[in-house]
Design goal:
about 240 residues; 3-stranded antiparallel β-sheet; two-stranded antiparallel sheet; 5 strands; elongated
Length: about 240
Amino acid sequence: MISSDGFRATPGTALKNEKSGEIIFVPPQDANKIVALMTALERFKNDDEMCSLDPLIKMALIHHQFENIHPFPDGNGRIGRILNVLFLTRTGLLDIPVLYLSRHITRHKSDYYRLLQAVRDDGAWEAWVIFMLDGVAETAVTTLRLVEGIGDQMRAAKHRMRAESPKLYSQEMLNNLFRHPYTRIDYVQNDLTVTRQTAARYLDTLAEHGFVEKHRAGKNNYYVNTNLVRLLMMASEHD
C-alpha cells in the first residue's frame, strides 16, 4: 500500500540487501533535505530548457534520483515506476500512459538494484541509462504487439456480433467486453444503462455464442473474454 502521509519526516530509513540484510544505501534522513531535493527534482523534471538531454535519458536520471531520495515511508518503487510513464507522456513521447516498465524492472530486479548501486558507488551512469533504454525498447515492442492484437480481436468480435447477435451489438457492449479480461452483470448494467435482467440476458447470449465464457464464483457470475486473456498471457510470456 502506498502511503498518503507525504514525505518522510523522521530518520531511520535504510535500504538493505534482500538476501543478506546488509545495509547498502542510506537515503537522506533530514526532512528539510528531502523537501529540498524533491523540489529540485521537480524543477528538473518539468523544466525542458534546463538541459538538452533526450527525454528518455532524462527519464533514467529522474528515476535514479527519485530512488536515491526515497522520499516516502513506503511505495517508492511503485511511485518511481509510475513517474517514468507520466514523464514520457508529459514530454509527448507517449499520447497516453500505456508503457509500463514495471515488468522489465521486476524481471531484471537483480540488475536493476546492482546498476542503481553502481551509480552511487562508481558513477556508472552509462550502464544504468542503457538498462533503462533497453527496458523502454522491449516494453514498447510488447505494448505495440498487445495493442494491435486487442484491436484485431475487437474488429473480429464486432463483425461476428453484428452477424450473429445484431440486436446485442453496440460500441458500448463491445468496449465492455474488452475493457477488462472479464465482465460482470453490473458492469454491463452500468455501461449500457440497462436493467440487471437485460444485462444478464445479453451476457448469457454472448456466452452461448462463444464471445465469453461464463464462470460462477461465490454469488457472482463472471464472463471471461478468453481470447483477450490468452493474448495478455502471450504478451507477458514474450516480454
